[in-house]
Amino acid sequence: MKELEERIAREGTVKPGNVLKVDAFLNHQCDVALFNAMGAAWAEHFAGKTITKILTIEASGIGIACIAAQHFGDVPVVFAKKAQSINLDGDQYVTRVFSFTKQKEFPVIVSKKFLNAGDHILIIDDFLANGQALAGLIELCEDAGATVEGIGIAIEKGFQGGGDGLRAEGYDLDSLAIIDSMDAETGTVAFRA
């Protein structure tokens, strides 16, 4: 998606350790018009697939998923929580994932009342690096007996291999911007053609 690539090149900041900051428009301050265009792009890509719910993980994926949901007939958005709380009651699906950005392992939790057998899931998230978060969300779907119809990612760090692994497993993965390389010294980002 050209518009997203241009925003990354113009407003993104490359930091040491393969970190890309896009907080000016994607995951701290949210550009809703951009999110809407992203949702339209995913709706076009996944047209013809039955989507009954969108699944994401807190926190950065929530806004993107909610705006995107409008392009899928206003399907509900379910977000996996990264911590147990008193608000989470009843039976739950739980797994653990390692966050590249936070360099820490988190529980990933979804109430069983919101993820069910027969659901057709589109997973949406802001970043894909090594694929650990997505693997956790896919595991929750499998545990529930839900079908993963596709995965929509805003920014994929193609050089970290998570996307290639998911595609090799047969998942329909649509990343709107795939980064082939980043250089913290020059601040440059190279996108996959």
TrEMBL record:
Full protein name: Xanthine phosphoribosyltransferase
Keywords: Cytoplasm, Glycosyltransferase, Purine salvage, Transferase
Pfam hit, one: Pribosyltran
Gene Ontology molecular-function annotations: xanthine phosphoribosyltransferase activity
Domain of life according to the entry: Bacteria
Chain's role: Converts the preformed base xanthine, a product of nucleic acid breakdown, to xanthosine 5'-monophosphate (XMP), so it can be reused for RNA or DNA synthesis.
Organism this protein belongs to: Bifidobacterium castoris
Residues that coordinate or bind xanthine: L20, N27, K157
UniProt EC number: 2.4.2.22
UniProt-listed SUPFAM superfamilies: PRTase-like (SSF53271)
GO BP terms: purine ribonucleoside salvage; xanthine metabolic process; XMP salvage
Compartments where located: Cytoplasm
Catalytic activity of the protein: XMP + diphosphate = xanthine + 5-phospho-alpha-D-ribose 1-diphosphate
Entries under PANTHER family matching the protein: HYPOXANTHINE/GUANINE PHOSPHORIBOSYLTRANSFERASE, XANTHINE PHOSPHORIBOSYLTRANSFERASE
Associated pathway: Purine metabolism; XMP biosynthesis via salvage pathway; XMP from xanthine: step 1/1
Gene: xpt
Enzyme class: transferase
Similarity section: Belongs to the purine/pyrimidine phosphoribosyltransferase family. Xpt subfamily.
Any one GO cellular component localisation term in the record: cytoplasm
InterPro entries: PRTase-like (IPR029057), PRTase_dom (IPR000836), Pur/Pyrimidine_PRTase (IPR050118), Xanthine_PRibTrfase (IPR010079)
Binding site for 5-phospho-alpha-D-ribose 1-diphosphate: A129, N130, G131, Q132, A133
Phosphoribosyltransferase domain: residues covered: 37-155
UniProt subunit comment: Homodimer.
